[in-house]
C-alpha cells in the first residue's frame, strides 16, 4: 500500500526540528486509533511479508553489496526467519490481542479482572548492520503487531540494505504510521532527542548506553539487544565431528563471525584441545576449501574500521605464535580467513572484547568444570554453548552460567524457536523479543478491575472501630475460622 | 565520603554471598519469606506505632494498606514459590529434532530497592518479597522522610532475615546518590518522576535494568448515576480513595474528579454529608485521617490554594493546621485548569471537581494530560466502560471503586508513559527480579549435510525447487532441524 510520502530522503537534512515534527505528526495520527484494529495490523504485517517475498533477489543483492554475504545465508537467516516471524504473528495475533481474564481473590471480592494489552504509541527501532534486514524488520513487525506507529533507523554501515528498506517500506507500507529515517550519528541523535513511547535498539554496549541516557530524559522504556563474548565449552566425551561442524556453522556460517550470538571463543581441556583443533581444521577445509579467502561461502568484513580492529587482535604480541589455522588477510577485499588460535592468555586483546569476526580463540583449562568459573569471571554474554554428554556437568552449567540463552550441543539455533524469549542480561542487554515476546515488548499490559456497587462492606469506611479491624484481619488472612469468629463477635 | 569504602565492601561481600549460590536454593528463599512474615506478624504493633508517628496513619489504614496486604502477598509467595521457580517448557512447533526447549527463571544478582515515604512498609517490602523469592540479594533504601518506619525496617530486617543477603541502608539524597553509583543488576524505584529520571540516568553506567513506579494525576470519572445506593457507594469510595488513604498522599489516590455539569451539585452535597458521617464535625479530632508528612509538603499544598481563583473555588473544608501538619478534607469545584493544582500531582487531601458538558468529554480531558498510574470510572454504562478502556491509557483502570487494584495479586501493578514502566505484585514481582533464560537442548544424533557449506548452485536450486519457496521448511532443513524429503536424501546419499 503505497503512501504519498516515502519518508525522508537523503537530500533533506534531518535535524532535531525535523525529528520533532515527525514524532508530533505520528503521535497525532496514532491518536486517531487507526493502528489499533486487528485489520490494520494484519494488513501491515501482510504488506511487509509481501515486500520481502517479492523482493528476495534485491535483498540478496543488497547483502552481497554490504557484506559479500552468500545468498543462502541471506535466504535462511534474513528472509526465512523473518517470514517465520510474520507467519507466527498472522496466526496468533487475534489471540494475543484478546484481554486475558484473571482470577480475583477475596481481597477484592466481589470483582472481575482482566489484563488488556494496548499499544505504547510511537516507537523507535534502531537496528544494526550485520543482519540489517532481519534486525530492522523483526522488531518493526512486532511493533506493528502491537498496534504502534513506528520509525525505523537502519544502520548506515550497511548502506544498500538501508536504502532498500527505505524503498520497500515506502512502497508497501502505510506511511502515515511507519517511516524510515536513514542516516548516521546526526540523524540518530536528532531522533534520540525526541520523546518516544519505547526505543528498541540492537547494537553494541557503547551506543546502547547513549540510547538509554537519552531515554532516561523522557522516562522512555527501552529494549537493548547487545552482545558479548558467547563462549562454547567443549567436553571430551562427545561426537567431535558433529561438534566441530556445529561450531563452524554458528561461527563462520553466520556473517563470518559477525553476529551477536556467534560463538566467540572456545573453552576446553588442555588434553582435548589438540584433538578439537585437528577436527576443526579438517572440517573447515571441507566447508571452505584450501583457499578460504576466495570462498564464495564466507561473508567479508563489513568495513575497513572493523578490518583494522580485527587485524589488531591478531597482531597482539600476546597471541603471536598461537595461530594454529588460518590468519590470512586480504585488506583490499576486506577478507579474513577463518582463523583458530590455541591457548590464548586471558589478558590478550582478543579475550578483552567481543571479537565479532572470523577469529576463534581456544582457551584451555585443566578440568572442564573450570570453564564455568572462566565464563562467570567475565560479563554475562548473550548466548552460551556447551557440548557435552555428561548429564551432571550439563545441569551444573545450566544452573550456574547466566546468559541471555543457553544451547546444549549446538550453536545459534535457539534463535529459531519463537516460543523462547531472545534477549540479553547484564552487559548483553535488557528486554527480549521474538514470537509473542515481540508483541509484549511493544505493549502495555493494562490492569482492569471491575467492581460492582453491590456487596459493600462497611468495615472499609470510617469511623474505624476495633471490630472492623478484627474482621479485616480475618478477611485478609483468609482463614474461615477467623472470619466466622470475627463475624460472630461483630453481630 | 566515609560511607563509600564501607558500602563497597558490604556490596562486595553480598555479591560473593550471591555467587556462592546459597540464595538460589528454594529453602533459603522460603526461610526469608517466612522471616518477613514473622517480622510483620510479631511486630505489628511496632509497625502501627511507627506509621502513626511518621504519618499519623490510623491502625486500620496501616493494616488495610500495608500490614494486611503484605501478609497476603507473603502467603501467596510461599504457596507459589515452587511453581514460580520451575522452568516452563516452550512449545516446539514444527521443530521435531530438538530435544527440549524451556524458559528457566534465574535471579539477576544484586538488586537495589528504593522506596517512598507514604507506604514505607508496603513499598519497601512488596518489591523485597519479589526480589527474595526470585533468589537475589538486595539492598533496601527506605525514605528518610518516614524515619521511624525506616529505622524499624532496618532493625526488623537485621533481626529476621539473612544479613549476608539483605541489607537496609538508611539516609537521604546523599546516601541515595552513593548507592546509585554502585553496580547493580536491577534497580526498583518508587517515587517521583524527577528522581526517577536521576535513577534511570545513573543506571545507564552499568546497563542496569530498572522498574520505575511513579505517579500522576489519577482522575475519577463519575457518571450521573440514578440509583441512590450507587451514588452513595460511589461517594463513600471516593472519600476513602482520596482522604482515607494517607490523606491523598498516594500514587494511586484519586487526584481529581470529572463529572457532568448538571450532576455536580448533587455529588458535592453527598460528599459533604458522607465526610461528616465518616469523620465527624472535626475531622482532625477523629484521628482517622493521616497528616501531611512534613513542612515542605504542607507548604507546597498550602500554596496550591494561594491562587485567588483557586481559593474561590473551594466549596468545602480548606482549613489547615500548620503546627500539626493537618489539612482537612477539602473540595474545590472548577479551579482554573492552568493553576498548579490542576497541572501538578496534588498528593494531598485537596479534591478538585471539574465539570464537563457530557461525561464522554472526560476521555479527551484525560488524554490531553500525561498518562496516569490509575484511572477510575464510576459508571454502569458499558459503552462508556469500553470506551474508557480502549480510548485512554494508564497503568490501570478500575471501575466503581478506587485503590483496591493494589490488593489484586493477579493484576500487574505499574505505570505507562510518565507514570513509569515495569510492574509488580503477585508473580509479576518474581518476574521483575528474574532473568528469563532460554535453554535449548539437542542431541548429537541428528545432523544433515544441508547445513554446511560449500553451498553450490546445485544444492541451492535443488532445495528451492523441492521446497517450493516454503522458506520456513527450507530454513529448518538447512539448519538440520527438519528431515528433508525422502527424495532429496536418496538423491544425495
UniProtKB/TrEMBL annotation, chain A:
Residues annotated as the enzyme's active site: 225, 260
GO BP, one annotated term: response to abscisic acid
Single GO molecular function: aldehyde dehydrogenase (NAD+) activity
Entries under InterPro entries matching the protein: Ald_DH/histidinol_DH, Ald_DH_C, Ald_DH_CS_GLU, Ald_DH_N, Aldehyde_DH_dom, Aldehyde_DH_NAD(P)
Cell inner membrane found in the keyword field: no
Top-level taxon of the source organism: Eukaryota
Pfam families: Aldedh
The entry's keywords: NAD, Oxidoreductase
Reactions that this protein is recorded to catalyse: an aldehyde + NAD(+) + H2O = a carboxylate + NADH + 2 H(+)
Domain Aldehyde dehydrogenase: 21-448
Family that this chain belongs to: Belongs to the aldehyde dehydrogenase family.
Cited PANTHER family: ALDEHYDE DEHYDROGENASE
Protein known as: Aldehyde dehydrogenase
Organism: Flemingia macrophylla
Automatic annotation (TrEMBL), chain B:
Family annotation (Gene3D superfamilies): Aldehyde Dehydrogenase, Chain A, domain 1, Aldehyde Dehydrogenase, Chain A, domain 2
Annotated ranges, domain Aldehyde dehydrogenase: 20-439
Keyword Oxidoreductase appears in the UniProt entry: yes
Oxidoreductase among keywords: yes
Reaction(s) catalysed (UniProt annotation): an aldehyde + NAD(+) + H2O = a carboxylate + NADH + 2 H(+)
Location of the active site: 213, 251
Molecular-function GO terms, alphabetical: aldehyde dehydrogenase (NAD+) activity
Keyword list, A-Z: NAD, Oxidoreductase
UniProt-listed InterPro entries: Ald_DH/histidinol_DH, Ald_DH_C, Ald_DH_N, Aldehyde_DH_dom, Aldehyde_DH_NAD(P)
One GO term (biological process): response to water deprivation
Similarity section: Belongs to the aldehyde dehydrogenase family.
Protein name: Aldehyde dehydrogenase
Source organism per UniProt: Flemingia macrophylla
Upper lineage: Eukaryota, Viridiplantae, Streptophyta, Embryophyta, Tracheophyta
Amino acid at each position: 500500500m503505497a503512501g504519498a510520502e516515502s519518508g525522508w530522503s537523503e537530500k533533506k537534512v534531518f535535524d532535531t526540528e525535523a525529528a520533532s515534527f515527525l514524532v508530533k505528526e505520528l503521535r497525532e495520527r496514532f491518536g486517531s486509533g487507526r493502528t489499533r484494529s486487528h485489520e490494520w495490523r494484519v494488513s501491515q504485517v501482510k504488506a511487509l511479508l509481501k515486500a520481502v517475498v517479492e523482493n528476495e533477489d534485491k535483498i540478496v543483492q543488497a547483502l552481497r553489496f554490504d557484506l559479500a554475504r552468500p545468498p543462502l545465508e541471506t535466504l535462511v537467516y534474513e528472509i526465512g526467519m523473518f517470514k517465520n516471524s510474520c507467519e507466527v504473528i498472522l496466526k496468533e495475533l487475534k489471540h494475543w490481542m484478546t484481554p486475558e481474564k484473571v482470577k480475583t481473590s477475596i481481597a477484592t471480592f466481589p470483582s472481575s479482572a482482566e489484563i488488556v494489552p494496548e499499544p505504547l504509541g510511537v516507537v523507535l527501532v534502531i537496528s544494526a548492520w550485520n543482519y540489517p534486514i532481519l534486525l530492522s524488520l523483526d522488531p518493526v513487525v512486532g511493533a506493528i503487531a502491537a498496534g504502534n506507529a513506528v520509525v525505523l533507523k537502519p544502520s548506515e554501515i550497511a548502506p544498500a540494505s538501508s536504502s532498500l528498506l527505505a524503498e520497500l517500506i515506502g512502497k508497501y507500507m502505510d506511511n502515515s504510521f511507519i517511516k524510515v529515517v536513514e542516516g548516521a550519528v546526526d540523524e540518530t541523535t536528532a531522533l534520540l532527542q525526541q520523546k518516544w513511547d519505547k526505543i528498541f535498539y540492537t547494537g553494541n554496549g557503547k551506543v546502547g548506553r547513549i540510547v538509554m541516557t537519552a531515554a532516561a530524559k523522557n522516562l522512555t522504556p527501552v529494549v537493548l539487544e547487545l552482545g558479548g563474548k558467547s563462549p562454547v565449552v567443549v567436553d571430551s566425551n562427545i561426537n567431535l565431528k558433529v561438534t566441530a561442524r556445529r561450531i563452524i556453522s554458528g561461527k563462520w556460517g553466520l556473517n563470518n563471525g559477525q553476529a551477536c550470538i556467534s560463538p566467540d571463543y572456545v573453552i576446553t581441556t588442555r588434553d582435548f584441545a589438540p584433538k578439537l583443533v585437528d577436527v576443526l581444521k579438517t572440517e573447515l577445509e571441507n566447508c571452505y576449501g584450501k583457499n578460504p579467502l576466495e570462498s564464495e561461502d564466507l561473508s567479508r568484513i563489513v568495513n575497513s574500521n572493523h578490518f583494522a580492529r580485527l587485524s589488531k587482535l591478531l597482531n597482539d604480541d600476546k597471541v603471536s605464535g598461537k595461530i594454529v589455522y588460518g590468519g590470512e588477510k586480504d585488506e583490499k577485499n576486506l577478507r579474513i580467513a577463518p582463523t583458530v588460535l590455541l591457548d590464548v592468555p586471558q589478558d590478550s586483546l582478543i579475550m578483552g572484547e567481543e571479537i565479532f569476526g572470523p577469529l576463534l580463540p581456544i582457551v584451555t583449562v585443566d578440568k572442564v568444570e573450570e570453564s564455568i568459573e572462566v565464563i562467570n569471571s567475565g560479563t554475562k554474554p548473550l548466548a552460551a554453548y556447551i557440548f557435552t554428554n555428561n548429564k551432571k556437568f550439563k545441569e551444573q552449567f545450566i544452573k550456574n552460567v547466566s546468559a541471555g540463552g543457553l544451547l546444549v550441543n549446538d550453536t545459534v539455533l535457539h534463535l529459531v524457536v519463537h516460543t523462547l524469549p531472545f534477549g540479553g542480561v547484564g552487559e548483553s542487554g535488557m528486554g527480549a523479543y521474538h514470537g509473542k515476546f515481540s508483541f509484549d515488548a511493544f505493549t502495555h499490559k493494562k490492569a482492569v478491575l471491575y467492581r460492582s456497587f453491590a456487596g459493600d462492606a462497611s468495615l472499609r469506611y470510617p469511623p474505624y472501630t476495633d471490630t472492623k479491624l478484627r474482621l479485616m484481619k480475618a478477611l485478609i488472612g483468609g482463614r474461615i475460622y477467623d472470619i466466622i469468629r470475627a463475624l460472630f463477635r461483630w453481630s | 565520603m566515609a560511607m563509600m569504602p564501607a558500602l563497597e565492601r558490604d556490596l562486595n561481600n553480598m555479591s560473593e554471598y550471591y555467587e556462592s549460590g546459597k540464595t538460589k536454593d528454594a529453602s533459603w528463599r522460603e526461610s526469608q519469606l517466612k522471616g518477613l512474615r514473622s517480622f510483620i506478624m510479631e511486630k505489628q504493633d511496632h509497625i502501627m506505632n511507627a506509621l502513626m508517628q511518621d504519618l499519623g496513619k490510623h491502625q486500620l489504614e496501616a493494616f488495610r494498606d500495608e500490614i494486611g496486604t503484605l501478609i497476603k502477598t507473603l502467603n501467596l509467595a510461599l504457596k507459589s514459590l515452587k511453581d514460580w521457580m520451575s522452568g516452563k517448557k516452550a512449545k516446539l512447533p514444527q521443530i521435531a529434532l530438538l530435544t527440549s526447549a524451556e524458559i528457566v527463571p534465574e535471579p539477576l544478582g544484586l538488586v537495589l530497592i528504593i522506596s517512598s515515604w507514604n507506604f514505607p512498609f508496603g513499598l519497601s517490602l512488596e518489591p523485597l518479597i519479589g526480589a527474595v523469592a526470585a533468589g537475589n540479594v538486595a539492598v533496601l533504601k527506605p525514605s528518610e522522610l518516614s524515619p521511624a518506619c525506616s529505622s524499624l525496617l532496618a532493625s526488623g530486617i537485621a533481626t529476621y532475615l539473612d544479613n549476608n543477603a539483605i541489607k537496609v541502608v538508611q539516609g537521604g539524597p546523599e546516601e541515595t546518590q552513593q548507592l546509585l553509583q554502585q553496580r547493580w543488576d536491577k534497580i526498583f524505584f518508587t517515587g517521583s518522576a524527577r528522581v526517577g529520571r536521576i535513577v534511570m540516568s545513573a543506571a545507564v553506567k552499568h546497563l542496569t535494568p530498572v522498574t520505575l513506579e511513579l505517579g500522576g494525576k489519577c482522575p475519577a470519572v463519575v457518571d450521573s448515576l440514578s440509583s441512590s445506593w450507587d451514588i452513595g457507594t460511589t461517594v463513600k469510595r471516593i472519600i476513602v480513595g482520596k482522604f482515607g488513604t494517607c490523606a491523598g498522599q498516594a500514587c494511586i489516590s484519586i487526584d481529581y474528579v470529572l463529572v457532568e455539569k448538571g450532576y455536580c451539585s448533587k455529588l458535592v452535597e453527598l460528599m459533604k454529608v458522607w465526610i461528616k458521617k465518616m469523620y465527624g464535625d472535626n475531622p482532625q479530632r477523629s484521628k482517622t485521617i493521616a497528616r501531611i508528612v512534613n513542612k515542605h509538603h504542607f507548604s507546597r499544598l498550602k500554596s496550591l490554594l494561594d491562587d485567588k481563583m483557586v481559593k474561590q473555588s473551594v466549596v468545602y473544608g480548606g482549613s489547615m493546621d500548620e503546627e500539626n501538619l493537618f489539612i482537612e478534607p477539602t473540595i474545590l469545584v472548577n479551579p482554573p485548569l492552568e493553576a498548579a493544582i490542576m497541572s501538578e500531582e496534588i498528593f494531598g487531601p485537596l479534591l478538585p471537581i471539574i465539570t464537563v458538558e457530557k461525561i464522554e468529554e472526560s476521555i479527551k480531558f484525560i488524554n490531553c494530560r500525561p498518562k496516569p498510574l490509575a484511572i477510575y470510572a464510576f459508571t454502569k454504562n458499558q459503552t462508556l466502560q469500553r470506551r474508557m478502556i480502549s480510548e485512554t491509557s494508564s497503568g490501570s483502570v478500575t471501575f466503581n471503586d478506587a485503590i483496591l487494584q493494589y490488593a489484586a495479586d493477579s493484576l500487574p501493578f505499574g505505570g505507562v508513559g510518565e507514570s513509569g514502566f515495569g510492574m509488580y505484585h503477585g508473580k509479576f514481582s518474581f518476574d521483575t527480579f528474574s532473568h528469563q533464560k532460554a535453554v535449548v537442548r539437542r542431541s548429537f544424533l541428528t545432523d544433515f549435510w544441508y547445513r554446511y557449506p560449500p553451498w553450490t548452485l546445485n544444492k541451492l536450486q535443488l532445495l528451492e525447487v523441492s521446497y517450493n519457496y516454503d522458506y520456513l521448511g527450507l530454513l529448518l532443513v538447512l539448519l538440520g532441524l527438519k528431515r528433508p524429503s525422502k527424495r532429496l536424501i536418496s538423491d544425495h546419499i
